[in-house]
Write a structure and sequence with these properties.
alpha+beta, binds zinc ion, 16% helix, globular, 4 helices, 355 residues, disordered N terminus, 20 strands, five-stranded mixed sheet, Neutral Protease, domain 2, eight-stranded mixed sheet
Length: 355
C-alpha cells in the first residue's frame, strides 16, 4: 500500500511522459522494407558458375514464388548483376528494367501474373569482387608460402543480392538449394551438407548442397578453397572447423569449445539446433565482418578462430571462446528467429552478446 501511495504521489508531482508501448507482434505484411510484398519467394534453386581467375560469375536460378496480389511487375533486389533473361512458368518472358542505384530489377510481364504459385527462372552474370562483400576472393599467403585464393561470401546486411537476384530483406524467408561450379581441387562448404560433386570439364566440378530450412537471404554462405578440417560432434550434430590447409590443427580449441557450447544452448533454448551440421571456417585476412553467424556455416577472421598453443596468448583463447559462443547463440537468436527489419538488429546482437 505504501509503495502504491508513494508511486501515486510521485506521478502526481511530475508531468506524464509518453506511454511506453510494446512493439506489435510480427506480421509479414506490416514488416518494414523496401520491396513490394505482392510477390513472395518460397524457394530458390541457385546455380552459379565461378571463374575466380577472371573474377566473373554466371548464374541461373529457379525461384518458386507465391503471387499474393496479381501484378504485371515483379521487383526484386540485385546489385552489380546483369539480368539477361527472366521467364515465368516455362514460357512468358519478362522485359527487365534494372535500377542500379536502388539495387533492384523489375521484371515486367505482358499480362498480370495470377494469384498463386509460379516458377520464375532468371539468368544473370556479375563480378566476383576483391572487396569483402557479396561474393569475393580472398588472396592470402598459405603456410607453404604460396599465394592462394579463397572464394568467400559475406551477405549481412544487404549483399546476397551481389550473388543472386532475390528478395534480399530479412522478412522474405525462403529455402535455398545451392549448386556451384568451381575449381575441382577446391573444398567447398555452405550452410548445408554436400549432396553431390561431379566433374565439369577437366578443371572444374559442380558441387550441390542440400536444401536449407526457411531462412533470410543474409544468412546464406559459401566458402571454397584449399582447406582442411578437424571434426567432432555434440548432441548428435557433426561439428567441424575448416582452416587453410596446414592450419587445421589450430581449429581444435574452437572445435572443443563448440562441443561444450552446443549441448548447453540446446538445453538453454529448449529447441535443438535444427540443421544437420555446424561448420566453422577461418577466413585468412580479408574479412571485415570479424565473424558471421551464417546458419550452419559460421565464418570468422582467422585470428578469432585459430589457436596456436606455442604462440597464442590466454587472451586469444578467451576471445575465441567468447566469439564462438556469440556466433553460436545467433544460430537461434537471429537465424532461427529473425528480426522483421534491421531496426531490431539490437535484439539479435543484444541476446547473442548476453549469452
Ligand atoms: Zn552478433
Amino acid at each position: 500500500m505504501r509503495r502504491l501511495l508513494t508511486l501515486t504521489t510521485l506521478l502526481a508531482g511530475v508531468p506524464l511522459a509518453a506511454p511506453v508501448c510494446a512493439e506489435q507482434v510480427f506480421s509479414f505484411q506490416r514488416a518494414a522494407g523496401q520491396l513490394p510484398k505482392t510477390v513472395v519467394p518460397v524457394s530458390y534453386g541457385i546455380n552459379i558458375s565461378t571463374d575466380i581467375d577472371n573474377l566473373k560469375l554466371t548464374g541461373q536460378e529457379t525461384i518458386q514464388v507465391d503471387v499474393r496480389t496479381p501484378t504485371e511487375d515483379v521487383t526484386l533486389n540485385q546489385a552489380g548483376l546483369h539480368l539477361a533473361g527472366a521467364v515465368l512458368d516455362n514460357g512468358v518472358k519478362a522485359t527487365i528494367t534494372q535500377d542500379d542505384a536502388a539495387e533492384t530489377a523489375t521484371l515486367h510481364f505482358p499480362a498480370k501474373v495470377s494469384k498463386g504459385a509460379h516458377t520464375l527462372v532468371i539468368t544473370y552474370s556479375g563480378p566476383i569482387l576483391k572487396t569483402p562483400n557479396g561474393i569475393y576472393v580472398d588472396d592470402y599467403t598459405a603456410p607453404s608460402g604460396e599465394t592462394k585464393r579463397m572464394l568467400v561470401t559475406q551477405f549481412e546486411v544487404a549483399d546476397a543480392r551481389r550473388m543472386f537476384p532475390g528478395w534480399d530483406e530479412p522478412a522474405f524467408k525462403a529455402t535455398f538449394q545451392l549448386n556451384v561450379t568451381l575449381p575441382k581441387e577446391a573444398v567447398a562448404v555452405s550452410n548445408m551438407p554436400v549432396t553431390q560433386s561431379t566433374p565439369e570439364g577437366t578443371s572444374q566440378k559442380r558441387v550441390s548442397f542440400a536444401t536449407t530450412p526457411r531462412m533470410s537471404t543474409y544468412l546464406l554462405a559459401l566458402v571454397a578453397g584449399d582447406m582442411k578440417s578437424v571434426q567432432g560432434q555434440a548432441d548428435g550434430t557433426p561439428l567441424a572447423v575448416y582452416a587453410p590447409s596446414g592450419l587445421e590443427e589450430q581449429g581444435e580449441y574452437a572445435l572443443h569449445a563448440s562441443e561444450k557450447i552446443l549441448p548447453y544452448y540446446n538445453n538453454y533454448f529448449g529447441v535443438k539446433y535444427p540443421l544437420p551440421q555446424m561448420d566453422m571456417v577461418a577466413i585468412p585476412g580479408n574479412y571485415q565482418a570479424g565473424a558471421m553467424e551464417n546458419w550452419g556455416l559460421l565464418t570468422y577472421i582467422d585470428n578469432v578462430l585459430l589457436f596456436d598453443p606455442p604462440n597464442s596468448t590466454p587472451r586469444t583463447r578467451e576471445l575465441i571462446y567468447e566469439v564462438v559462443a556469440h556466433e553460436m547463440a545467433h544460430q537461434w537468436s537471429g537465424d532461427l528467429v529473425t528480426m522483421g527489419w534491421w531496426d531490431n538488429i539490437w535484439l539479435n546482437e543484444g541476446f547473442a552478446s548476453w549469452m
